[in-house]
Amino acid sequence: MQQFIQGNEKAFDAVFRKYYKLLCARAVIYIKDNDRAQSIVQDCFVSLWEKRHSLGTIEKLHPFLATAVRNKALDFLRKEASESKLIDALKVSEGEVLIDNMAITLEFEEQLMTAISMLPDRCREAFQYSRFEGMTYSEIAVNMNISVKAVEALIGRSLKLLRREMIDYLPLFVLLFIK
Which of 49, 119, 164, 165 makes a 20 to 30 Å CA pair with 77? Predict the structure, then answer.
């Protein structure tokens, strides 16, 4: 042990070979994953090597290493549990956001349909041809038997009235209906 504390790599290698498998078996009891258990044991040995000068005198090395492995395994399990809780919380948050977005969309659609129904008849007709049926101003003019300029005026008036009614939803309204 004294040679190990002084930095003798052969002494470290002897300690490593003597206890590695036993410590891995102990870590598997907690972790239930061989690869992760081996990683934890290796971390313990690295930590032991880095802190060898401050170890003082250890009477029995195996119980010391076993405790270190147990503590690292428990730390790993705590970290894994908190990450799992965080992931679960994020999944719930994403679901809540999706539900909120659906509710806002439904509310927007209801408000929009109400606002459109309040438009004067010719404005409503021109607006619906333009925005819901995808017709050009020329096609609307032919359908409604009016000039293209009249269609422009009707659509402009419709948008002005709708903007006023949909002020609470203006960013969404602009994205969907203002060209």
Answer: 49
